Please model this.
Amino acid sequence: MNQLLVIVKAKSPITAGGLRPYGMFITTRDYIPGSVLRGAVAVHWLRTNKGLYDRLFKSQEAVLFGNCYPAQERRHACQPDYTLVLPATARTCKHFPGFVSGFKLRVQENPDLADLEMEPHGVFDTLIPQLVYEAMAEEMPVAFDLRCQRANCECSTEPLAGFYERVIQPFGTKPYTYRAVRARMHRLSHSAISRVTRTAKHGLLYSISALSANNQFRGVVTVPAHLNLAQVEQALRIPRLGARVSSGAGEVEINVYRLPLSDPRCTLPPVSARIRAFNDLLTEHWCDYHALAGRPNALPSKPPDTYFVLTLQSDAILRTPAGTPTLEWNVSTLGGEEVQLVRRWVSPRRVSGWNVAWGLPKAVDLACSAGSVFVYKWKGHLPTDETGAEKHPLVQALREIELVGLGERRAEGFGRVLVCDPFHQEVTSV
Ligand SMILES: [Zn+2]
Model:
């Protein structure tokens, strides 16, 4: 398997579809789904080069088109090349929401903002504290605190969804700065003129929302090893995508790079290092809560198992072995090791789509939303040396899941997963 980083620059508004129109409003998604990119590549080569179309879409192993998420235009060297989805466990202040570190970065770039905008109170992740609290809930004399962490605020908090970037901060007290990324939207209104009355025809005034020109999106395309990588790179550089291309929408410039790039800012730490960092912080919290427990002797003084987390980076369509739609990935062995699902934060979503080749709508499926979090435990421990840990069968199985994803319709961008997202370690506001 090889991976390609795809950077899509919008040169005209893009309608990325996917949402049901209501009344006179036709809405769009705030990113380019993998299915839209895949559909556009398929239609382009089906019309112009049937041989290439057959190699890309009729091979035994499918090319996996990931969703392309909004990204900031690169302004300085330490900005990363990937956009991540905020986990369902991330929370922010109800009255002053948003990343405080991202705000400080924006003020550095544009000092006038300091007078115009209120400083947000930061975003924090509740997964580790909540997991430890729930493991000891019976012995805890206090309630679990989900209030804002800013001094003198104490407002309640709410989950924060969306996309974020993790920027390396070489000189600050924390190694990373976080900032939310959003696509700029564009609204177009149209009406049909009646030839009789010379006014807007009744029922034909409508408004279309689209992703504005000059937005940038990044995604990953996974290519099976037997395909010629240079040819796939070439095939991805299509001129248009999305709906309404005949009326000028969807003009794009697509650049493709091979991953992993040699530059370290583009890569997350190895899977074993992420698992270790997650468990180290979990142990730290376990010891703190253990000291607070009513009867500490009734509880183990350290976590008895190794925990790992799967955070969905796109919607995932999962089924039980009997074929029933489900909202949990209830696996019992991974890499030959017994694992157990302990907790999940999931919200459901209905997904459908349009099959261009058949000219028919796709089946409606139940999916777990992007950002959903699944926590598993394993009774063993990873070797302490990094090389040994990376070669462990469980780590190799998790790395494979990160590469190929989970569940159905993976070629269309569903089921992308990040193992032990480092954001889960941000237990204090960032
Ligand atoms: Zn607050």
In short: Residues 335 and 394 are 5 Å apart (CA to CA). The mean pLDDT is 88. The longest strand covers residues 200-211.
